Amino acid sequence: MDTLLLKDCTLCPRNCHVDRFNGQKGYCKTTYELVVARAALHMWEEPCISGEKGSGTVFFSGCAMGCVYCQNHKIAQGLRGKKISIERLAEIFLELQEKNAHNINLVTPSHYVPQIIEAISISRKKGMTLPVVYNSSGYEKVETLKLLEGYVDVYLPDLKYYSREIAKKYSNCEDYFSYASKAIIEMVKQVGAPAFDENGMMKKGVIVRHLALPGYLDDSKKIIQYLYETFGDQIFISIMNQYTPMETIKKYPELNHKITEKEYEALVDYAIQLGVENGFIQEGETASESFIPEFNEEGV
């Protein structure tokens, strides 16, 4: 592992320059020690990721975004989880493979990129053959993503905001779109057009997620338009309606309710009018805390 990357940490756009290797913490609230809150089969991703057997998700604690509405705030900001070694992480990948997971799904992994690269290398030498999914906020640096080339098969980033003002208000990163848009270009460059196996599971490609926030339909439309006009059918676009108001949202009353069915239908209709065909939409009651997993250190 390249410890220099952690001794003066600039892995993410926050560029904290802290010495995480010697115990300092930056915006992500983590040192160099891996903290994992859950490692288990997960059925609630896109169909080509979860399939029938489940995605082998590894939920990492800590996050460089800190969104005020975060559904995983217990681990992203509360740092619930267990400290493990790189060798143990490699074992977890192999254990998920033994459970017939369709892939290894790294959730919020950005601040642990050097450790993850080493764990993937170890596990592959021991027989891990599953596609690796990099499931992130989209707030990434191209320089960090370049380190992952050859290690990641499927990129699953968010594209949360188009507006600098909205990004600043809810995630304290007015430069979000600038970084995320460049990051997605790098992701597509690395893994290319979508490719699937005989069971319809994605082997290579990029799925960009957008979580629609209540009251911000115009910003959501700008994101869908940007993605389709920039990438066309090179990517899949996942339009999500599962925004769930959490206890932490009380200071933001405008977000203290779910997105309306009318708002979501308008966004989906807009995507169809643009010509989006490679896409996923959500149906039914997805905006529920029951869809948020228990971060109880299962599988860790």
Automatic annotation (TrEMBL):
Cofactor dependency: [4Fe-4S] cluster
Binding residue positions for [4Fe-4S] cluster: C63, C67, C70
Signal peptide stretch: none
Domain Radical SAM core: 58-225
InterPro entries the UniProt entry points to: Aldolase_TIM (IPR013785), MJ0674-like (IPR040085), Pyrv-formate_lyase-activ_prd (IPR016431), Radical_activat_CS (IPR001989), rSAM (IPR007197), rSAM_sf (IPR058240)
SUPFAM superfamilies per the UniProt record, alphabetical: Radical SAM enzymes
Name this protein carries in UniProt: Radical SAM protein
Species, as recorded: Defluviitalea raffinosedens
